[in-house]
Amino acid sequence: MKRFGWFFVLVAVLTAVLPIAAKKSVAGAGGMSLFVSGGAEVYEIDIEEYTLRVLISEAKDCQSEQALYALAVAVRSCAAYFSLYGLKHESFDVCTSGDCCFSLGDPQKTDGAYLARLKNALDATKGEILTLDGMPAMALFTACAGSGTRYCAEFPYLSPVASAERCSSHTSTVELPTDSDLFFTTNDELCLVYGENEKCEFGIAQNKMLSADELVTRFSLPSYEFSLEILDETAVFHCRGLGHGCGLDICASDRMAKSGFGYKDILLKYFPNLSADKIYNN
Ligand SMILES: [Zn+2]
Ligand SMILES: [Zn+2]
After folding, report:
1. Which-ligand-closest: CA of 252?
2. Distance of CA 59 to CAs 84, 171, 208, Å?
3. Are 78 and 69 in contact (CB under 8 A)?
4. pTM for this one?
5. Where are the chain's structural domains?
6. Measuring CA to CA, which residue among 75, 122, 118, 73 is closest to residue 94?
């Protein structure tokens, strides 16, 4: 009983001290930085500069100021996560491939008015990130989640969030002949199983289970929200949304901002399990 008591006190002390210590070591007076691999060389880049470059390539459809602020905080959170933990690479924090980490835009080649809007969003939210237990969280973002975001197996704290209204602009169809090698056979059905917010979780064909990831890759689908219709000899996937569908929904957050919500409301809606935190001021 006595030992258990000590353990409890120790855990309580560590929990109180660790986040503060980590914040001091990762975000000193000068902020944080990341090691970026761009082609042959690895270079160091300030977290605000990295966040700006990610925004240049990701924020094009973010028209409202408050939605842009929310996205700036989400991107900076991911950058802080990369800086602290890395993710996929051993000898540097991030690469510049959008398929692996995030793609980066070039400020020199960016329209002046757009760049000014992005810099304003960065200044207005300087040092703000989202945290889990006091540590930077991977606050992912997606172009459009259609009816809502989906469960993220890699970062389970990004819980599925339904949109106030499902997006009607990001809809598309993907067609292929049912006798294509990609499809199965005309006599076989592909049975789709859905999770929250109309997202496909997996499919069953020829007595085999295919994950949603496998289906999206196999048929080059734009999102995880899709239904299948077989018309004569054509398989038609009706798709809604754009991107992986996890975390902050840029399209829906833009609608939220247009109807008067602030960036903190948007962050609270999409990241209900995370806390807003300021890790540096200058
Ligand atoms: Zn990478
Ligand atoms: Zn949309």
Report:
1. 2
2. 24, 20, 39
3. no
4. 0.86
5. 32-163+246-278, 171-240
6. 75
